[in-house]
Every structure is written in C-alpha cells, then in structure tokens.
C-alpha cells in the first residue's frame, strides 16, 4: 500500500488579506493541492492542521478540491483545525470519520520525495 502524506497545510481564509493576497493564496494553495493529488498512491493523508484557524470556509475550500479528485483522502484533525468549531461540525463539513483504520495492509514502505544527489 502506498501513502501520499502531507502535514501542516494551514490553508487560511485570510479574512483581513488584500485582494492581491487572497489571489496569491488561492494560486499557491491550488498548486500545492494539485501537486499532492497528482502523486500516485493508494491513500492520500493529511496529518493535521489542514486549515489555519479551523473555519468552515477553510475546510470547504480544501475538501471541495479533494472531492473533485478520484483520490481516497483521510484527514487527521490537528490543533489548528479545531480552533473555531466543534469536531462534530468539522466532521459534518468534511464527511470524514472521527477515527479510521486500515483493514488490509500487505506491506508498508517509505520513500523520500527529495531528488537523489
């Protein structure tokens, strides 16, 4: 089984950002999500802090993007994800389960995405 893992994405609603800042945010975070989803794997995982302040619109942005893909995605809640709304509301927005487990795992291996020197 092959995992594609990211952590500390920190997508921010940038409530006080200028229009230019918001456009730059959307360009960068869309590119990062596209690159994450382009990586081949059986399961794509976020290891917490997918959002910066845990606002519903932050979750919706990321999960709208994830849901448009064909990838299986699991999000582990991080401390930033739970700043603003209760976990039950987060799970309602994301459609994720509070707890997950992998039932079948034949082999687990890790490899770096860093280029070889």
UniProtKB/TrEMBL annotation:
Gene3D superfamilies tied to this protein: 3.60.21.10
Name this protein carries in UniProt: Metallophosphoesterase
Domain Calcineurin-like phosphoesterase: 1-91
Signal peptide as annotated in the record: none
Pfam families assigned: Metallophos (PF00149)
């Amino acid at each position: 089984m092959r995992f594609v893992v990211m952590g500390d994405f920190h997508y921010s609603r940038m409530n006080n950002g200028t229009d230019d800042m918001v456009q730059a945010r959307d360009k960068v975070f869309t590119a990062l999500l596209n690159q994450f989803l382009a990586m081949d794997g059986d399961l794509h995982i976020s290891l917490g802090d997918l959002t910066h302040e845990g606002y519903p619109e932050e979750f919706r942005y990321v999960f709208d993007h994830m849901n448009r893909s064909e990838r299986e995605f699991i999000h582990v809640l991080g401390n930033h994800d739970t700043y603003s709304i209760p976990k039950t509301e987060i799970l309602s927005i994301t459609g994720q389960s509070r707890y997950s487990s992998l039932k079948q795992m034949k082999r687990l291996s890790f490899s770096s995405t860093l280029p070889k020197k």
